[in-house]
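re: ur question from yesterday

yeah so i grabbed the chain u mentioned. its 375 aa long if i counted rite. heres the sequnce exactly as i have it in my notes:
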Amino acid sequence: MRFSSLILLNLLRRPLRSALAVTGVAVGVAAVVALVGVARDFEDSLRGVYESRGVDLMVIRAGSMQRFSSVLDQSFGEDIRRLPNVREVFPTLMEVVSFEGDNVVGVVVQGLPRDRGPLREYRMESGRRIERDDRRAIMLGKVLARNLDKKVGDSIEVTPGEPFQVVGIYDTFNVFENGSIVMGLDELQPLIGRQGEVTYFTVTSDRKDKQSLESLRKSIEGLKPGIAALATREYIDTSVEIRMARASAWLTSTLALLVGAVGMINTMLTAVFERTAEIALLRAVGWRKHRVLTMILLESVVLCLAGAIAGTVLSILLTQLLAQMPAAERMVSGRVAPDVILQGFLVALLVGVIGGLYPALRAARLDPTAGLRKE
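ran it thru and got these structure tokens back, copy pasting raw so excuse formatting
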């Protein structure tokens, strides 16, 4: 009998125990792939908002870990625009609102210049873009419009007692933007009491080599104290919201994997105790210690890889289901990155090694004579 066939036969001889071990690992892997995948998807979606527009630098108030808390004077944009190697500078004001009556919370409102820049780049699914002379006009992402059951021409109270008319519904490749509201910067400022203020500036440069961008970054930060100019990736990666999402995903996943690892150790130890005579006989007929150790370790790894497959399938189904839920579809696209799936398999492999190592060492150290006598 082949060595690999023996390993599979040993696992199939105890189907219920093997199934329970696989289930424990599957839950842990599903937690890793689903939670980390959702966090990564949101991060990539947020980064894509800026990278798709060729933004090179994000200018914010230094020390603003929570990005929406950044406050800058709108006139500072003119100082940036006069610097060499600056092609475009656009101000953006961000706010978060909720529509409790529709059970839709945490909606991002973006205030953008009316006649230029990002506002011109939205692809309209219906209606039109906001124009220079519009008043009390907004655009909705298609996902948010569906959640609120709104269409072009309908009215929405962005804040209580402040109705705005929907003039257009847009569709972008980005799930974050599709769940947002867009309005004129000049109307959002007085609406939330931030006249003359913006959250950040996006800066596009003429020369995009590393040295030129670093020089531009230093020039912007040198204009006045308390200013930070960050590359797009750094702007996203250092935000407290993204860090908390990552930490929460890994913390929950780690707890689930610890439970799976403990279950795997228990499963393999029980298997070794039950097969004492069998292992002793194998040692008596010439099996070396390393061969016994390899057998038990591989049994543990095979169970964990089976759990990884089941957990990955489960996580993809859960992520797809989450993306269909109104409360989450504005932030979750349902995609799971291949590298996140690979992480799940690597973690499962690690659990297999950890869960099987101690039982395998006990089996390898078993004295053949004592084992046969016990039987």
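noticed a couple things. The mean pLDDT is 82. also The chain has two domains: 3-46+242-374, 64-225.
anyway ttyl
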